[in-house]
Write a structure and sequence with these properties.
Largest sheet: none
Strand content: under 5%
Distance between the termini: 14 Å
Radius of gyration: 21 Å
Helix content: over 70%
Shape: globular
Number of domains: 1
Number of helices: 15
CATH superfamily: MFS general substrate transporter like domains
Mean pLDDT: 80
């Protein structure tokens, strides 16, 4: 057995350019989402409005996801990602202008709110392309034997940006205000566009260019549903994200329950990402491929417990610790899921499989936000969070009982086979 090299993927120049781009892009995206949450709740003072943000982004992302996967598999990946980033910069610029008093002078709060919702809707459409394109591009800039390590570093970069982006957004709102925070977001998006252009164009590995779209979509869906490891991992993560969507309610906790203001909001929002990032750094040195199925079940069970503790807490530091451990468990889940996807997906189907992943997990972020906003409106904020954590626990227990093959999932053999290629 070859010795594990925790820096294997970082020895490739193009991968380093890629993770720099990904860091800047995710930093900007998470900052922007935090500012939108804060601004919308400040305008409405209604948790339902936070749920509306989720459903408005979910609808276009979910509907477009399968078509995005087909398009990604048919197109050159570097240019497609650059086009997506350029379109994202238009959204960031629009939000910057919507929060500029001189531009919206005379506008009602309702009109500004609808403008924000419109840009969020466009962002949902756009986001359906980001996951499949990024997932496919990674496989084109590192050798197959490096996929597991590249997946860990890519996920770690995502988490590090998710740590710093929300924390900086919270402090930036306090220091500079919403408007100039969004100006900084726009600058970061432009920077990420310039960085991605430093990677050369890549070949299209799909041998079925011009394949009818319906046939392409059916083939992608069949592959996912017959590959039990992928289906099980996506299902578990989807449920955790759907019912564990306490994050969308953080403005309510920060402003009305814990009463810690925008600075405390930034700390709360960053806590889960800190936990996930530290976990991913550890997994770069200590792979978790052995008994991956059991570890994934245990991680999501721990995530549900953390969400329940957070929901019941009225003490700031207890809430921060609970969110931190929700991030630790989510980090384990993400590394295992991304490793499964990279190892078990053929090159010519990466776009479509990543799109199914987006439909299962990515879009459930927004649907989970809607579920949290709706249940908070119907049950109250604390009850809604506890309900979501409880549903996560029930799902994990059920999955563990009905799927013994998933409990026995082990990825060591797959990793060794890829290292020989």
């Amino acid at each position: 057995m070859q010795k594990n090299d925790p820096y294997e993927a970082l020895r490739f120049r193009e991968f380093n350019i890629f993770i720099l781009m990904r860091f800047a892009l995710v930093f900007a995206w998470t900052m922007q989402f935090i500012v939108i949450e804060w601004q919308v709740y400040s305008i409405t003072k209604d948790p339902w409005s936070l749920g509306v943000i989720g459903i408005i982004e979910f609808i276009p992302a979910f509907i477009m996801a399968p078509f995005a996967g087909h398009i990604v598999d048919q197109r050159e990946k570097r240019n497609l990602l650059a086009m997506c980033i350029a379109a994202f910069s238009v959204i960031s610029l629009g939000l910057f202008l919507l929060t500029w008093p001189e531009v919206v002078k005379g506008w009602s709060k309702q009109k500004v709110l609808y403008g924000i919702y419109a840009l969020v809707f466009f962002g949902g459409f756009l986001r359906s392309f980001f996951g499949p394109t990024i997932f496919s591009l990674i496989a084109l800039i590192v050798p197959k034997k490096t996929y597991p390590n590249a997946a860990t570093w890519s996920s770690s970069t995502w988490q590090m940006a998710s740590v710093l982006g929300p924390a900086f957004a919270g402090f930036s709102i306090h220091w500079f205000g919403v408007h100039w925070t969004l100006c900084f977001v726009f600058g970061l998006v432009v920077f990420s566009l310039l960085v991605i252009l430093q990677i050369p164009k890549k070949p299209i590995l799909n041998p079925k260019i011009g394949e009818p779209i319906i046939q392409s979509l059916v083939e992608g869906a069949k592959f996912v549903f017959k590959t039990k490891a992928i289906l099980g991992a996506l299902t578990l993560d989807m449920v955790a994200v759907l019912f564990g969507g306490a994050i969308i309610l953080l403005p309510v906790f920060a402003q009305d329950i814990l009463k810690v203001g925008s600075e405390g909001f930034g700390v709360l929002r960053a806590a889960p990402a800190v936990g996930a990032f530290l976990t991913m750094l550890v997994t770069a040195y200590i792979p978790i491929s052995k008994n991956a199925g059991i570890k994934l079940l245990a991680a999501i069970f721990g995530f549900g417990i953390s969400i329940i503790v957070f929901g019941l807490s009225s003490i700031f530091w207890v809430s921060v610790v609970a969110l931190f451990f929700s991030g630790v468990t989510d980090g384990v889940s993400m590394v295992i899921r991304q490793t499964i996807l990279q190892l078990k997906t053929p090159d010519n189907m990466r776009g479509r499989v990543a799109s199914v992943n987006s439909m299962f997990v990515g879009s459930s972020n927004e649907l989970g936000a809607f579920e949290s906003g709706l249940t908070a409106k119907l049950m109250g904020t604390v009850t809604a969070v506890v309900f979501g954590g409880t549903m996560t626990l029930i799902t994990v227990i059920t999955m563990g009982m009905v799927s013994p093959s998933f409990r026995k999932l082990d990825l060591r053999k797959d990793i060794e086979e890829h290292k020989k290629k």
